[in-house]
TrEMBL record:
PANTHER family reported in the protein's UniProt record: 6-PHOSPHOGLUCONOLACTONASE, 6-PHOSPHOGLUCONOLACTONASE 1-RELATED
Catalytic reaction equation(s): 6-phospho-D-glucono-1,5-lactone + H2O = 6-phospho-D-gluconate + H(+)
GO molecular function: 6-phosphogluconolactonase activity
The name this protein goes by in its record: Probable 6-phosphogluconolactonase
Pfam families assigned to the protein according to its UniProt record, in alphabetical order: Glucosamine_iso
Enzyme class: hydrolase
Protein family membership: Belongs to the glucosamine/galactosamine-6-phosphate isomerase family. 6-phosphogluconolactonase subfamily.
Sequence ranges assigned to domain Glucosamine/galactosamine-6-phosphate isomerase in this UniProt record: 16-250
Gene3D superfamilies: 3.40.50.1360
Native organism: Acacia crassicarpa (northern wattle)
Gene Ontology BP terms: carbohydrate metabolic process; pentose-phosphate shunt
Xref: NCBIfam families: pgl
Pathway involvement of the protein, from the record: Carbohydrate degradation; pentose phosphate pathway
Cleaved signal peptide residues: none
């Protein structure tokens, strides 16, 4: 089921298998359109269960039809930990997808995990500035921010996206700051992390936000429902995703969408 809300398009899936196929088709469509338009595709991944959901891309038909040599991979966030560590977002993506498809190794732009979080954020921002200069990543039409073809995010149970956690100063970064860091994430185990800022995320051409399972139902409701605003409602980071010119699509399963659906139903009765 697809709904067009003020907060973007919401796709609610009957099963994880259906969600995986829809997400793979969506990524394939954006990749094809980007390659057609500018000869390459710049995608930013994050972590969490999202990565196992996109593993379908390593299967046929996607593995054979995708123009992997045109893909450039970045991370919207990662933890400052060895790339071999089970909690590294890079490792997750490598195990689930990157090692299984013919992506050119020099197109994979992971973070430097051997320096402090502050230095890693600075280095990663420099790398993105170089990628904009080299036109691997486009520039936004409305600001100097990078304009990624696609950014994939997953909502955490506390409503965080990438490594933008509730009530942290990173949420206030302005356009000049593209990559920031946190040494105190509310998600345990607490790792030092680096993350894209909201201006960078909101400058993307396409943003997909994924959430599955009933533990995410409250966060999804707070992030996407029209009635989740006002003084009593916490403003979760996922609610701050507002593409400036791009398109936002939510990929949810039924349990994650349950509170959002209930609020849509009750509001339609009030009309
Ligand atoms: O810490 C993180 O968590 C979120 C969501 O993860 P999940 O465990 O709730 O599936 C993820 O999107 C983010 O990139 C990651 O660093």
């Amino acid at each position: 089921m697809a709904l067009h809300l003020e907060r973007g398009e919401v796709r609610i899936h009957e099963s994880l298998e259906e969600l995986k196929t829809d997400l793979a088709d969506y990524i394939a469509e954006i990749s094809e359109a980007s390659v057609k338009k500018r000869g390459l595709f710049a995608i930013a991944l994050s972590g969490g269960s999202l990565i196992s959901l996109i593993s379908k891309l390593s299967e046929t038909p996607y593995s054979k039809t995708m123009e992997w040599s045109k893909w450039y991979i970045f991370w919207a966030d990662d933890r400052l930990m060895a790339k071999s560590h089970a909690d590294s977002n890079y490792r997750l993506a490598k195990d689930c997808l990157l090692s299984k498809v013919p992506i050119i190794p020099s197109h994979v732009h992971s973070i430097n995990d051997t320096v402090s979080a502050e230095e890693a954020a600075g280095e990663y921002e420099f790398l993105i500035r170089q990628s904009v200069k080299n036109r691997i990543v486009s520039v936004s039409e409305t600001s100097d921010c990078p304009n990624f073809d696609l950014i994939l995010l997953e909502v955490g149970v506390d409503g965080h996206v990438a490594s933008l956690f509730p009530n942290q100063s990173a949420l206030e970064e302005r356009e000049e700051e593209w990559v920031t860091f946190t040494t105190d994430s509310s998600k345990k185990p607490s790792h030092e992390r680096i993350t894209f800022t909201l201006p960078v995320i909101n400058s993307a051409s396409n943003i997909a936000v994924v959430a599955t399972g009933d533990s995410k139902a409250e966060a999804v409701h707070l992030a996407a429902a029209a009635d989740s605003t006002g003084p009593e409602c916490p403003v979760v980071p996922a609610r701050m995703i507002h593409p400036v010119k791009g398109k936002l699509v939510w990929f949810l399963d039924k349990p994650a969408a349950s509170k959002l659906e209930a609020s849509l139903m009750s509001n339609s009765y009030k009309l």
